[in-house]
């Protein structure tokens, strides 16, 4: 995703040498460099006391595949705040504890996804209007329903391989 114009003043950006970062798009008027940093988000495996996992379907993401809870880190939040907020917003459930697992770079949209495992107590879902379907899955069924090669599946497998250490 290339930025050609300043988001503050609208000036066309030029390339400028910035420290050891190389040639970076730069607004001469605002003296502002535009680094191509990825947008930070969280991706969360949510698991309950019966070892069931939450998967959800969001038609605007995919009509055919189930996925994990995900969301952008917003201004003023650390990653853990986002984990707690997104789980609450998308499922209605309260996170009791969480563990960081691994991070993934999604190159298509230039996202840095921070992967967590979050523990919740089983309860009725209160789903967000952004969520079209939501359900509990056994660990084996969850693996079958996550898209092959997706970040969600990679995180899920990483979380499960470390699951016993994390209990
Ligand atoms: Zn500018």
TrEMBL record:
CDD domains noted in UniProt: NUDIX_NADH_pyrophosphatase_Nudt13
Cofactor(s) this protein cannot do without: Zn(2+); Mg(2+)
Domain of life: Bacteria
Keywords associated with the record: Hydrolase, Magnesium, Metal-binding, NAD
Enzyme class: hydrolase
UniProt entry tagged with the keyword Ribonucleoprotein: no
UniProt KW Hydrolase keyword: yes
Positions of the Nudix hydrolase domain: 37-159
Pfam families in the record: NUDIX (PF00293)
Catalytic activity: a 5'-end NAD(+)-phospho-ribonucleoside in mRNA + H2O = a 5'-end phospho-adenosine-phospho-ribonucleoside in mRNA + beta-nicotinamide D-ribonucleotide + 2 H(+)
EC nos: 3.6.1.22
Family to which the UniProt record says this protein belongs: Belongs to the Nudix hydrolase family. NudC subfamily.
Record protein name field: NAD(+) diphosphatase
Source organism of the structure: Clostridium rhizosphaerae
């Amino acid at each position: 995703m290339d930025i050609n114009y300043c988001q503050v003043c609208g000036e066309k950006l030029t390339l400028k040498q910035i420290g050891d970062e190389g040639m970076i798009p730069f607004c001469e008027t605002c003296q502002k460099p535009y680094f191509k940093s990825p947008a930070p988000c969280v991706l969360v495996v949510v698991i309950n006391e019966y070892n069931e996992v939450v998967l959800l379907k969001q038609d605007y993401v995919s009509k055919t595949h189930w996925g994990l809870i995900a969301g952008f880190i917003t201004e003023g939040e650390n990653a853990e705040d986002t984990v707690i907020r997104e789980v609450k917003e998308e499922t209605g459930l309260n996170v009791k504890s969480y563990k960081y697992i691994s991070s993934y770079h999604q190159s298509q949209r230039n996202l840095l996804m921070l992967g967590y495992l979050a523990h919740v107590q089983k309860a009725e879902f209160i789903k967000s209007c952004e969520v079209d379907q939501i359900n509990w899955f056994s660990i084996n069924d969850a693996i079958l329903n996550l898209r092959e090669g997706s970040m969600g599946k990679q995180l899920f497998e990483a979380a499960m391989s470390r699951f016993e250490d994390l209990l």
